[in-house]
Amino acid sequence: MSIKSIVNQLIKKYGTNDPFKLAEYMGVLIVFEPLGNALGYYNKHFRVPIIHINENADRKLQIFICGHELGHYIQHEDINTSFLKKHTLFSTDKIEIEANTFAVELLLPDDLFLEQNDSSFTIYDAIEENGVPKELLSLKTIDGKKILP
Predict the structure, then answer these.
(1) Residue 104 and residue 17 in contact, taking contact as beta carbons nearer than 8 Å
(2) Residue 75, by phi and psi: left (phi above 0), alpha (psi -120 to 50) or beta?
(3) Which residues form the IrrE N-terminal-like domain (predicted)?
């Protein structure tokens, strides 16, 4: 099953694309803590899934971090991920790309682009509103096509 399909099923099942609400509904604990240069990480402790988010990160970035780490929970549940660091946010590691893709598809659902009546609304407005780093925009697809090359 594709990452987009997994995301769409979660949004349909829980009625939200908010990663914080999804984590709550799925029983994933979220902890805000000082992590230095690390943005966040996911782990399981005594079978309890936990998303750790840097309390000093910008609120919009925290939304993306939560989505990314939720992607690890959904796709790599039994792997304790290493710290997501600022300089590794754009990692070429397979599980990091999958988690980034999950977060991008979660935070930028297709409906966001298909239902916009304001012709001045752009993809860049969408990523700004939803905390998605512009460097990851190339991971977004609509109808199986990447929106940017």
Answers:
(1) no
(2) alpha
(3) 23-137
Tell me the per-residue pLDDT of 75-98, one tens digit each, with 9 for 90 and over: 876 666 665 555 455 555 788 888
Q: Which parts of the chain are beta strand (E)?
A: 29-33, 38-45, 48-54, 84-85, 141-142, 145-146
| Residue partners of 136: CB distance under 8 A and separation at least 6 | 89, 90, 100, 103, 104
d(CA 1, CA 22): 19
* pTM (two decimals): 0.85
Residue type, 99: A
Domains and CATH numbers, the chain: 3-143 (1.10.10.2910)
Name the residue type at position 4: K
